[in-house]
């Protein structure tokens, strides 16, 4: 294998806080690797150091010579004065101008400019580059190329930065939370893109379906150690459990043996100490192993919620629009106790506005929201925690309460409660500004739950939370007896938590889908296939009608030749066989039982199959018009 990156004995600290030390690992060509660790352990810092945006205290980073590296930062620094097209084009100024002139000519139907720009495009061989740029921008729903970066939202800027990195097709891609601010269609497109790209990949993400489908290796950073798992996320979960179990068994065995050795040490005559030196050395080694158990506590969310009466929220004929943008049209719904609703839809369809409407934070244009007297909202917002510049962690929670009541009725002081949420006592007086993005999110969750809500509204709760915290939050929500509304692009999280979906389809239309997100996507895929089939049949009927109406000319194709009929039948068989092979390969890849070489080989084969399916499907549709 060709080594792309070697990280050796890396150490990084901020004052007395040691993020990590002794970190060593390597990445070879064609590997697709995910980095997993708890919040606050330095995932983003590690990526920044590898990308050269930060420096390590100790250690060495070595890249393959002439390696082209692309880096998507969590909060990418863009030039606010640039237009989108300026920001994403990395080719020469001449190529960029030729493409811009060509697009301008097409848009304005300027034939003189079109002729000149096409000639330039030919001369500069810019056609492939232009197609690639447009394809990526279109998939990420970026279409206003001349728009200034300064006018974009945070999510739009992240998508522009992602497009900019992907367009370059670097040898090594470093991605920090690439799925944040992407809607579900974009995430699924990015999955397929990264699976088939030739770029080697190292990324940090909390999206477990994304990890499962894209990555063939997981690197876990735990207590300053690196553990590698040759497989996807499902394989990692299984093997990590085995590792932790084995570690605990080893520690327990050492403790049992240590008790006997301690008794021997106490009774050992001093005169025999020289002869027993090897046993004394073994005793101290054993003591190290016995004290090497895991000291990190596992977070468990157990917070008492307020009593909920019979009346929850009744919404009748709710309408809302901003200028010409219709967000909600005649929406009515009666919420019931214990229901858990997921909200899905494209960015800009009004999901966050809907949450603000039902909590009466913004007024509706018409209609009513009738909230039961006992309802206590816990609203976890996208913008995250708000704090004063000088506030410390303890200050934030003490503003809400000094004592918290847990689900079992037991009361707990806020310092103990913070510890319960993995904010150790030495972190209580840390300025909030010094926390990592994930730690700020976890603190925000603490402040929401401390208010004992019985109606939880979670707007993108999965952004920046580590996988371990997400699993705990999922477990808590599954037993929460109040109401829950979740807006999230994390498909795994949605599948674990919600009972049904509000699907925002744009133009104020909201549909209630009775099932999980996975069931919804399966239904949507089936619907899209049926619509394509129906469109092909309609096209065929229209063609047949036009043939009947018009006299046949010598060059007009009416029916297939014998050879084309055979080809058409063979294509149907080929497409079925390729689909079956693709499904079988995906099952093998997800099994976690393959070697690294097999994973790479089978992933490459899936890429070949996808291209073949596209080609054969296009030819089948072409012949199908005359079959």
Shape assignment: globular
**Number of beta strands:** 20
CATH superfamily of the largest domain: P-loop containing nucleotide triphosphate hydrolases
State the CATH topology of the largest domain. Answer: Rossmann fold
Secondary-structure-derived class: alpha/beta
Poorly predicted ranges: 550-557
CATH architecture of the largest domain: 3-Layer(aba) Sandwich
Strand order of the largest sheet: 5-6-7-3-8-9
- Tally the structural domains: 4
- Mean pLDDT over the full residue set: 82
Termini distance? 49 Å
Fraction in helix: 40-55%
Largest sheet properties: 6 strands, mixed
Portion of residues in beta strands equals 15-25%
Radius of gyration of CA atoms, rounded to a whole number: 29 Å
Which CATH first-tier class of the largest domain would you pick?
Alpha Beta
Tally of helical runs = 19
Topology of helices and strands:
Elements: E1 3-14, E2 17-28, E3 32-36, H1 43-50, E4 58-63, E5 69-72, H2 84-88, H3 93-108, H4 111-124, H5 127-139, H6 154-167, E6 172-176, H7 184-196, E7 200-204, H8 208-214, E8 217-222, E9 225-229, H9 233-267, H10 277-290, E10 313-322, E11 325-334, E12 340-345, H11 351-358, E13 366-371, E14 377-380, H12 393-398, E15 403-405, E16 411-413, H13 414-420, H14 437-449, E17 455-459, H15 467-479, E18 483-487, H16 491-497, E19 500-506, E20 509-513, H17 517-549, H18 562-591, H19 596-624
Parallel strand pairs: 3-7, 3-8, 5-6, 6-7, 12-18, 12-19, 14-17, 17-18
Antiparallel strand pairs: 1-2, 1-4, 8-9, 10-11, 10-13, 15-16, 19-20
């Amino acid at each position: 294998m060709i080594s792309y990156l070697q990280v050796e004995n890396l150490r990084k600290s901020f004052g007395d806080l040691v993020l990590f030390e002794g970190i060593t690992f390597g990445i070879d060509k064609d590997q697709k690797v995910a980095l997993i660790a708890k919040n606050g352990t330095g995932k983003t810092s590690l990526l920044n150091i590898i990308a050269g945006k930060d420096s390590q205290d100790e250690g060495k980073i070595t890249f393959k010579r002439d390696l082209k590296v692309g880096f998507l930062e969590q909060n990418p620094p863009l030039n606010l004065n640039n237009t989108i097209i300026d920001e994403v084009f990395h080719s020469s100024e001449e190529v960029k101008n030729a493409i811009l002139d060509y697009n301008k000519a097409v848009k304005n139907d300027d034939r003189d400019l079109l002729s000149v720009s096409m000639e330039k495009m030919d001369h500069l061989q810019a056609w492939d580059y232009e197609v690639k740029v447009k394809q990526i921008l279109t998939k990420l729903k970026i279409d206003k190329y001349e728009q200034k970066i300064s006018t974009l939202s945070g999510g739009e800027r992240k998508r522009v930065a992602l497009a900019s990195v992907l367009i370059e097709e670097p040898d090594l891609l470093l991605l920090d939370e690439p799925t944040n601010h992407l809607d579900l269609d974009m995430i699924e497109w990015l999955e397929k893109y990264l699976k088939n790209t030739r770029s080697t990949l190292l990324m940090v993400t909390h999206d477990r379906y994304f990890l499962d489908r894209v990555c063939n290796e997981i690197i876990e950073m735990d207590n300053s150690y690196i553990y590698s798992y040759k497989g996807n996320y499902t394989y990692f979960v299984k093997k990590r459990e085995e590792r932790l179990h084995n570690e605990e068994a080893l520690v327990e065995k050492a403790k049992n043996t240590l008790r006997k050795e301690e008794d021997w040490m106490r009774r050992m005559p001093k005169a025999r100490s020289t002869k027993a030196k090897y046993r004394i050395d073994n005793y101290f080694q054993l003591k190290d192993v016995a004290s090497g158990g895991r000291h990190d506590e596992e977070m468990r969310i157990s917070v008492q919620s307020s009593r909920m009466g019979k009346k929850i929220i009744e919404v009748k004929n709710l309408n809302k629009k901003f200028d010409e943008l219709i967000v909600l049209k005649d929406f009515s719904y009666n919420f019931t106790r214990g229901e858990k609703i997921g909200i899905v839809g494209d960015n800009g369809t009004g999901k966050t506005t809907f949450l603000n409407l039902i909590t009466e934070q913004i007024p509706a244009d018409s209609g009513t929201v009738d909230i039961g007297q006992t309802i206590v909202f816990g609203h976890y917002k996208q913008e995250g925690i708000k704090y004063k510049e000088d506030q410390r962690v303890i200050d934030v929670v003490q503003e809400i309460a000094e004592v918290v009541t847990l689900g079992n009725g037991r009361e707990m002081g806020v310092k103990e409660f913070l510890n319960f949420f993995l904010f150790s006592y030495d972190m209580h007086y840390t300025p909030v500004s010094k926390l990592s993005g994930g730690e700020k999110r976890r603190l925000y969750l603490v402040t929401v739950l401390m208010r004992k809500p019985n109606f939880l509204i979670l707007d993108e709760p999965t952004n920046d939370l580590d996988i371990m915290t997400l699993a705990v939050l999922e477990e808590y929500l599954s037993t929460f007896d109040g109401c829950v509304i979740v807006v999230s692009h994390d498909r795994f999280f949605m599948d674990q938590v919600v009972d049904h979906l509000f699907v925002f389809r744009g133009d104020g239309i909201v549909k209630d889908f009775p099932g999980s997100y996975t069931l919804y996507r399966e239904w949507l895929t089936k619907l899209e296939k049926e619509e394509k089939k129906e469109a092909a049949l309609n096209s065929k009927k229209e063609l047949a009608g036009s043939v009947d109406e018009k006299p046949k000319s010598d060059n007009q194709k009416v029916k297939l030749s014998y050879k084309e009929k055979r080809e058409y039948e063979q294509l149907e068989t080929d497409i079925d066989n390729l689909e079956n092979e693709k499904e079988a390969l995906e099952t093998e890849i997800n099994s976690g039982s393959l070697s690294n070489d097999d994973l790479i080989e089978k992933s490459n084969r899936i890429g070949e199959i996808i291209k073949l399916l596209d080609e054969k499907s296009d030819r089948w549709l072409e012949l199908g018009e005359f079959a």
